[in-house]
# Entry
Amino acid sequence: MTLFESASQYREKAAIWRIFSLLPLFGPLAGGRVWRWFAVNIPMDMGSGGLFTSDIDIIARLHDLPQSKAWLYRTWEVKVSLLCKDGSARSLKVGKFKRTLTQLNAYRDFGSPAVSLLEVYVCESGFMKQHAFPPPMLHRSLMAKIADLRAKQFGYQLLPFEHEQRGDDDVGLFAIPKRWNPLETTFNLLPPQISSPAQPFSRLADRLNEFFEQNKNPQKHRKQIVFCKACRQMQLIRMKDEHGCPNCNDDLICQS
# Structure
């Protein structure tokens, strides 16, 4: 089954798994910086004592070496929409954008120093052969979102890609921005305001970093930090190959 055909209740997590299975899809999230680790689907209550109960979809620990040794943390709220090969769209969530702004504000209230919206557009097989991205039917909604996000100083990125199965092979294509940088596959519409990390995000970031650094796996730079809601434990896995918890074997994508 392709990602386009996946069940709607699992599509967001499945899309995040897909992003982190391909370096050209997740690498550009670093914005040209070097990353130490990425963490996905991390509960805020790990660092807040239960005051915040949402999840952070993606967290990255980045730096600008050799220019600077200071670490920068970025966070993303992920939303997924579908683009059909006939040019139509599904699951655009236009009427739910106020709720998205509320979620982004929660990231900032939690203490995240750089908050962005990442809109993932999963394209049906054949879309990119017939249509440019973004298609005209998205222009009005994109402009409205840009105005709202700019006013709040949130970042805004678009990531369109096509996913299909050819026999036993898993094939992915991504759209190319007009001003193409080989290291960039996202459409970076707005940069986020960057501030200093605040509590309780700082505690959570420290906990994630301690977990990563204490792991002795020599291949850990190829893996991502995930959290299993079944056994309530952090894990370090290679999302390209794994979606089961190494501790309890629960399916991490299907967890709600």
Q: What stands out?
A: The chain has a mean pLDDT of 88. The first helix runs from residue 8 to 19. The beta strands are 34-43, 55-63, 71-83, 89-90, 115-123, 155-166, 169-174, 187-190, 224-228, 233-237. The radius of gyration is 18 Å.
